[in-house]
Amino acid sequence: MTSEDLKKLYNSHKEFELKNRYIHNAHILPLLEKLKDFFEIKHIGLSVLEEPIHSIKIGTGPKKIFMWSQMHGNESTTTKAVFDICNVFANESSEIIQEILINCTILIIPILNPDGAKNYTRHNANDIDLNRDAKNLSQPESKVLRGLFNSFKPDFCFNLHGQRTIFGVGAINNSATVSFLSPAQDKDCTITDTRKKAMEVISVMNEFLQAQIPNQIGIYDDSFNDNCVGDTFQSLNCPTILFEAGHYKNDYNREITRFYIFEAMLLSLDYISKNNVSGDFYKAYLNIPENSKSFLDIIIRQAKMESNGNINIVDVGVQYAELLKDNVIEFIPKIEKIGDLSHLFAHNNIIADSKEFSLQDDEVIEEGIVVETVFINNIKYSLKLTKA
């Protein structure tokens, strides 16, 4: 499967009904209705607020892949990619796609946390992080996920997430557009045979994506936590792959990242369908750099500020907070850090060059405040982003 193949598939089958960052059950229920003509769609449970949770079963093959998206309700990019891929399997007759359908059975939960998705929150309606509930299974959504895992008995799990704009790749000035992880199976992070299989598949995806977004793929922290779903499923000897949809330059709606996630998912399914994944080819995974918390959305560099009668030259770091308002996600710029930020990168640098920095109506400059407009030598700069 080539990049040209994947671009054609994406352009032909992208689900245009899903866009921007705010995706919840009302958006996907009409799509599930359409997919009933092609796949087995089931109502598999209810959320805390009794919102339906659904599954999609695709293909008939012996290799079983289980994937779930929006475990964290505000991480929707992978959900969009899931429906793009569903459209491919529903409407594409090419030999490449048919081979996956013959060799694999794919079971998908498109939105595991519908309450969090509706409220655009990480947690569910009981304010529980479902990715820290694998051990206690205290929430109905956690029980749905674990029940399906137990009954389906997958050969691979895809744990689909989204990550914040703060993540970079290693120590370089590149955002982590896509990140992966073969989760730890024990406290010592032993490279087990199960982890090697996940690492092998990740290595294939990494090599492919590096040709398109070089040095923008990272590995997520693999510290072991048996409350995390990925670590738990890996510990049960099911090779589990964490997908993290991250930031691409100026892509706050995550539409460009959506394409790379689509590519990675479909490529991995193709690889699993055609190969006996033994884990023998895992070592390339070890060369993928780790994520680092090295970015802010905006840094005003070398700003001249007065404080307590003293003149200081400092950097001012701004981070966007995501706020749901009238069914639209607004990006609210807030001052995150003030000081020497030379060790951090920014998605947008504003060079003050020791010129006077001020806010609207001479507002006091301090961490935590909202700053939609700033002034450098009385020249106005807007920090607002387009709504999503």
Automatic annotation (TrEMBL):
Keywords: Hydrolase, Metalloprotease, Protease, Zinc. Residues 14-272 form the Peptidase M14 domain. InterPro entries: Peptidase_M14. GO terms for molecular function: metallocarboxypeptidase activity; zinc ion binding. Its cofactor is Zn(2+). It comes from the Bacteria. PROSITE patterns: PEPTIDASE_M14. One of its GO terms (biological process) is proteolysis. GO terms for cellular component: extracellular space. The active site is at 244 (proton donor/acceptor). The keyword Zinc applies. PANTHER family: PROTEASE FAMILY M14 CARBOXYPEPTIDASE A,B, SLL0236 PROTEIN. Belongs to the peptidase M14 family. This is Peptidase M14. It comes from Formosa maritima. The lineage of its organism: Bacteria, Pseudomonadati, Bacteroidota, Flavobacteriia, Flavobacteriales.
